[in-house]
Specification:
The protein has six helices and ten strands, in the order βββαββαβαααβαβββ. By secondary structure, it is of the alpha/beta class. It has one domain: P-loop containing nucleotide triphosphate hydrolases (Rossmann fold), CATH 3.40.50. α6 links the parallel β7 (156-160) and β8 (189-194).
Length: 223
């Protein structure tokens, strides 16, 4: 289990996260909703080690991650899809998907197996594999970013505002991919941030509200 205990973080001297307490248990699809500027992106970046925390602890199975950098957290099975996608334009989609696993030094056979798993969850990526990153639309780039996060996210997947800007057809496809993922890998924890609660529909098992850097309440929990 990944736990944040009284985690605070600042950017340019301004406190963005305040005493965040949250647990990411296996098998849960957790939504964190809040208006723009509430601290959702900062929360995910703090979990990934891309932003230092000013106080508190982030632990994985009781082990303090401390100052562990982002690449080490990726090696622990945490995948991250940022809001701005960050797709390498001169690489093909397949190269973009394989890259984080190659950086981790995984065997080529395992990388191919992971790619097959990703294509089962996000079948829309299959016809895009040979396409360059530069040729993707914004929505297609978000699908590719999801696939890339799944390549390394064997225990946790963090998705930042994935539905923002998606056309209705792609939004439905994205939601279906999350449902397939949730059903096919019951031990995986998925955390999704969104500004617009309605875009999440009935996806999450639980929803938390982030307001001015504080987790306010659990909005709902489905059986």
């Amino acid at each position: 289990m990944l736990k944040l205990q009284r985690v605070s973080a600042s950017i340019a001297g301004i406190t963005v996260l305040r005493d965040i307490d949250v647990s990411l248990p296996p098998g849960q699809l957790l939504a964190v909703v809040g208006r723009n500027g509430a601290g959702k992106t900062t929360l995910l970046r703090a979990i990934m080690g891309l932003l230092p925390i000013s106080s508190g602890r982030i632990t994985l199975d009781g082990i303090d991650l401390g100052g562990a950098p982002g690449h080490r957290r990726t090696a622990l099975g945490i995948g991250y899809a940022p809001e701005d996608r960050v797709i390498y334009p001169t690489f093909t989609v397949e190269e973009n998907l394989r890259l984080p696993c190659e950086v981790l030094g995984l065997p080529s056979q395992e990388i191919s197996q992971r790619l097959d798993r990703v294509l089962d969850v996000v079948p829309q990526l299959a016809p895009m594999l040979a396409r360059s990153g530069a040729a993707l639309s914004g929505g297609q780039g978000k699908m590719a970013a999801l696939g890339r996060a799944l390549m390394v996210g064997t225990r946790f997947v963090l998705l930042d505002e994935p539905f923002q800007g998606l056309a209705p057809v792609l939004a439905n496809q994205y939601a279906e991919s999350l449902r397939r993922l949730h059903q096919s890998d019951p031990a995986l924890c998925i955390m999704v941030t969104e500004s617009n609660r309605s875009l999440m529909r009935d996806l999450p098992d639980a929803t938390l509200t982030l307001e001015r850097g504080e987790l306010q309440s659990e909005a709902h929990e489905t059986p």
